[in-house]
Specification:
Blueprint: E1 2-4, H1 20-27, H2 36-46, E2 51-54, H3 61-72, E3 92-95, H4 99-112, E4 120-123, H5 129-138, E5 142-145, H6 147-155, E6 166-170, H7 172-177, H8 181-189, E7 196-201, H9 206-214, E8 220-225, E9 237-243, H10 249-256, E10 264-268, H11 272-284, E11 289-292, H12 298-310, E12 315-318, E13 331-336, H13 343-350, E14 360-366, H14 371-381, H15 396-401, H16 443-449, H17 460-463, H18 468-471, E15 497-498, E16 501-502
Parallel strand pairs: 1-8, 2-7, 2-8, 3-5, 3-6, 4-5, 6-7, 9-14, 10-12, 10-13, 11-12, 13-14
Antiparallel strand pairs: 15-16
């Protein structure tokens, strides 16, 4: 069903049947009144019905499934614990497509479970197996993770899904796009058939709905929409698009980042190389910028996100790996450095701003060859910007549209460089997995994870073991090896032969 919702005056989570301990935990973080998706799904989910929930990005889907999940789970010090078939085994599982989203969802669940003894574990790749295995051995009630790492732990016999009573697929459309569907089906097949299943996402293409209905029983499809927000995008986001030349983008960026009242800003790039280059360019211009992309180790990715959340950097340049995992309420600007591939990616990128009722600005750079793609996005979302104005860093409308001071230049003035920067946030040693033993071809990855790349040692081949000749009989034992003290290399003596017979050396020509 599709439903609009107007919250009754003063309605709280307690009015919707939420446990008092969860209500108190949320209230301590000033979360008192439910968003539309929460108000519509909580009564249905708390009654144990399967749900397909759809709402715009940034409107509170996590608590929409998180509260019913936590309310059904029992912790070690709570009633119902002794009645469990296998106390300490996971009772609920949340499957997400990206590591960043796993961190965000687990954080929200831990917040809501502050007054409970329910334990929440993050499980995803890039981190060492041992801490995750140790947590599973000691007992957890809720597991939040990516499909790949969950399957690895399950096949090792460490993750037991045989007692799961609630499963959530978050951002299922992204998992479909990333090719995770077979992995998700493997995980679902390892769970009991009688379970509570919920699926949440901002967009819901047909294949996702088909998959969901295959594993759900009489699922209720809830599409929540604020009656005052009928557009495809969130009404509190100011949408802007400019047609710009690729060589002028960084100059325009430098001006945009000096707009009045600009807070935390996320810049989205299409490729890993572009994200790294843009972050370096901005840092060279005095901005506190960091990048996050797939070539970075997990430690470096989490370092950048922590620095961004703590305010040590206020500009994060990211690929789409971060579009579904950054939940920071006060992101004021989202900038698409390159035009998104389609309207779904546009929605998820721009949804990083204008969250939880705040206002935001979404700016898209459209190159000349990207105009057909932008036309499709504009039409699908009805943005009303069919012809983005041609814009350069000298264009007057750039400054008036985004409230930029006319004196803003290519570099951030030194007086405004007050943030500590990325270097002020330490890289956590995560015991990262998946690294090459010989890092000559992955120096960037080694630097990102904080480890020194292995260097070539010219003496290694000389003294590290027996040579091939030595192993075959030692006939090369008396032959000196070249080193720094023997600059002249011994010449090999050659004998000329013809037909197997020695040939005398010819005399030099006169």
């Amino acid at each position: 069903m599709t439903a609009t919702y107007a919250a009754p005056v003063g309605e709280t989570f307690l009015d919707l049947g939420v446990d008092q301990r969860i209500v108190d935990a949320l209230a301590s973080y000033d979360i008192v009144h439910p968003f539309p998706i929460q108000a519509l799904t909580l009564p249905v989910a708390l009654a144990g019905h399967d749900i397909i929930g759809q709402a715009k990005t940034g409107t509170g889907k996590t608590l929409g499934f998180g509260i019913p999940l936590l309310q059904k789970a029992a912790g070690p010090d709570e009633s119902g614990w002794n009645g469990l078939e296998a106390p300490g085994k996971p009772q609920a599982v949340v499957i997400v497509p990206t590591r960043e989203l796993a961190v965000q969802v687990a954080g929200d669940l831990e917040l809501a479970a502050t007054n409970r003894s329910v334990r929440v574990l993050q499980v995803y790749g890039g981190r060492a197996f041992e801490p995750q295995i140790a947590a599973l051995n000691s007992g957890v009630e809720v597991v939040v993770g990516t499909p790949g790492r969950m399957i690895d732990l399950m096949r090792q016999g460490r993750l037991d899904l045989g007692h799961v009573t609630t499963v959530v697929l978050d951002e299922a459309d992204e998992m479909l796009d990333m090719g995770f569907l077979p992995n998700v089906e493997t995980l679902l097949a390892a769970m009991p058939t009688e379970r509570h299943t919920m699926l949440f996402s901002a967009t819901m293409p047909g294949p996702v709905v088909t998959m969901a209905r295959r594993y759900m029983v009489q699922a209720t499809h809830i599409r929540a929409q604020d009656p005052e927000d009928e557009g495809a995008t969130v009404k509190d986001i100011h949408q802007v698009a400019y047609r710009v030349h690729s060589l002028n983008k960084v100059e325009i960026l430098a001006r945009l980042l000096q707009a009045k009242d600009r807070g935390r800003t996320i810049i989205f790039a299409r490729t890993k190389r572009t994200a790294a280059k843009v972050a370096d360019d901005l840092a060279g211009r005095g901005f506190a910028a960091a990048s996050i992309h797939g070539d970075l180790g997990q430690g470096a990715r989490e370092q950048a996100l922590r620095a961004f959340r703590k305010g040590k950097v206020d500009v994060l340049v990211a690929t789409d790996v971060a579009a579904r995992g950054i939940d920071v309420d006060d992101v004021t600007h989202v900038i698409n450095f390159q035009c998104p591939e389609d309207d779904k990616i546009y929605l998820h990128r721009t949804g990083r701003t204008g969250r939880a009722g705040n206002k935001g600005t979404a700016i898209t750079f459209v190159d000349w060859d990207e105009m057909p793609r932008w036309g499709l996005i504009n039409k699908a979302l009805d943005l009303g910007i069919s012809e983005p104005p041609e814009t350069y860093h000298t264009s007057d409308h750039l400054y008036s549209d985004l409230d930029i001071d006319a004196s803003a230049g290519s570099f951030l003035p030194k007086a405004q460089r007050t943030l500590a920067g990325l270097a002020a946030e330490e890289v956590e040693d995560l015991g990262e997995t998946g690294k090459r033993r010989f890092d000559g071809r992955s120096k960037a990855r080694s630097r990102a994870s904080g480890s020194a790349p292995r260097t070539h040692d010219p003496k290694r081949r000389q003294g590290g073991g027996k040579s091939r000749q030595g192993a075959q009989g030692g006939q090369a034992k008396d032959r000196p090896l070249p080193d720094a003290e023997s600059p002249v290399r011994r010449q090999r003596s050659r004998r000329r032969t013809r037909g197997g017979k020695p040939v005398a050396p010819s005399s030099p020509r006169g």
